[in-house]
Amino acid sequence: MIPTLIATFGLASGLAITYYLFKSPNPPELDLQKWWGSGSPVAVVDTSIRPFKIEFNYTMIKDLKERLHNRRTFTKPLQGIQSEYGINTIYLETVLDYWVEDYDFKKRADLLNMFPHYKTNIQGLDIHFIRVKPDVEDVEVLPLLMLHGWPSSSKEFDKVIPMLTRPRVGYNFVFEVIAADLPGYGFSEGTNKPGLNPVQIGVIMRNLMMRLGFEKFYIQAGDWGSQCATHMATLFPEQVLGLHTNMPLSSKPVSTLKLILGALVPRLAVDRKYADRIYPLKNLFSYLLRESGYFHIQATKPDTIGVALTDSPSGLAAYIIEKMAICSSRIELDTPHGGLQHLDLDDVLDTVTITWMNNCIVTSMRLYAEGFALPEVQTVHDIPTYVPTAAINFLYEVIYQPDWILRDKFKNLVRSTVIESGGHFAAMQTPNLLTDDIFDSAVEFLKFHEKNKRIRDQNY
């Protein structure tokens, strides 16, 4: 009797675990017009699309430079230490001096304004976006929504937009690019209401594209933008024609189990050439433990650290620069720059300046807290997406997952590329490689839809 009971319990437990690991829940019920603006929804919604120009105004610049000039003396690094304890404050001094003396605010604003900028109100929030239409004839134009992550903005894409909107030999299509600032980032308005998580941002971005007249479109995204885009592909598969991501990630429970099981026989779990990107797991966990302190703070107490970062441009620069450096090359802690040399300093200071002038560091960091606060996020994570997906994995991306794990979430992974260089801010660091992969991925998306069309036609 006892052995039978034990066997029955074991079988039941196994079935329960299997169900949990492989379950595909129903999508959450979402209000697709949920109001995120101040107060209650307005009776008449402003649907206008307004031209917008970026200006680094004199008052902001004067105040910023005064604060930088009056900064306190920083504590020097320990003897023999470069960036192992965080940003090298001697190096930081040179960056701040450059920001005050040599960073050309007008020139940088003019460069950003080479693209048409707009704002429109979506669900109570003014959303900023760049929209560049290609000047072409006899070439198919594919609408492409581009979404960034933290601590970035649509500025991140200023190197790739010109390449994406120009025809290239061997391709019979080009892109119309819509690069949007996530709510609370860059020039997009943040909310004063809790709950604006990546799922809800996905709804906002879908509504933005519909406002612009796109019923169907493609998406390219990284970091938090990739999370929002993945949720869009999951929830709106009839509208998202293809998803290209430079931070591919499956957050399903079975994916975590596979990651752990793969540690037992790494050569069976991942191509031997790339095994050291995730195995041995102790190295991965050591890296994540070393570099994820900011993540935990922002996911729990963003408003507290936000006080210091809002009040001090030196502190804001140090905080953002250190993370941009490590995510561009994690192996250069023994240098003063900590990895920042792989990015153009003016691009980095554009990001810091945009964050400072819009006072949006707190509203951007809150996404870390919101991303884990509501069960609807994990629910959508657990639902597979059948939208054709392309993944590109740069060398120093935060985390790498092999295709056999990615397919837990992305059932139609039509292209997967592994790059032996680059990092998290791909559009800034390796714009040519990213652009090439977007074009090649679009070829696969078009093939996927043509094949499905032939199958449908044969069945009628």
From TrEMBL:
Active-site feature positions: D223 (nucleophile), Y368 (proton donor), H424 (proton acceptor)
Gene Ontology CC: endoplasmic reticulum membrane
UniProt-listed InterPro entries: AB_hydrolase_fold, Epox_hydrolase-like, Epoxide_hydro_N, Epoxide_hydrolase
Functional summary from the UniProt entry: Catalyzes juvenile hormone hydrolysis.
Domain of life: Eukaryota
Gene Ontology BP annotations: epoxide metabolic process
Classification lineage: Eukaryota, Metazoa, Ecdysozoa, Arthropoda, Hexapoda
Catalysed reaction, written as an equation: cis-stilbene oxide + H2O = (1R,2R)-hydrobenzoin; 1-(4-methoxyphenyl)-N-methyl-N-[(3-methyloxetan-3-yl)methyl]methanamine + H2O = 2-{[(4-methoxybenzyl)(methyl)amino]methyl}-2-methylpropane-1,3-diol
Pfam families: EHN
Gene: jheh-lp1
Assigned protein family: Belongs to the peptidase S33 family.
Protein name: Epoxide hydrolase
Membrane topology classification: Single-pass membrane protein
GO molecular function: cis-stilbene-oxide hydrolase activity
Documented EC number(s): 3.3.2.9
Locations listed in the record: Endoplasmic reticulum membrane; Microsome membrane
Domain Epoxide hydrolase N-terminal: 49-157
Keywords: Aromatic hydrocarbons catabolism, Endoplasmic reticulum, Hydrolase, Membrane
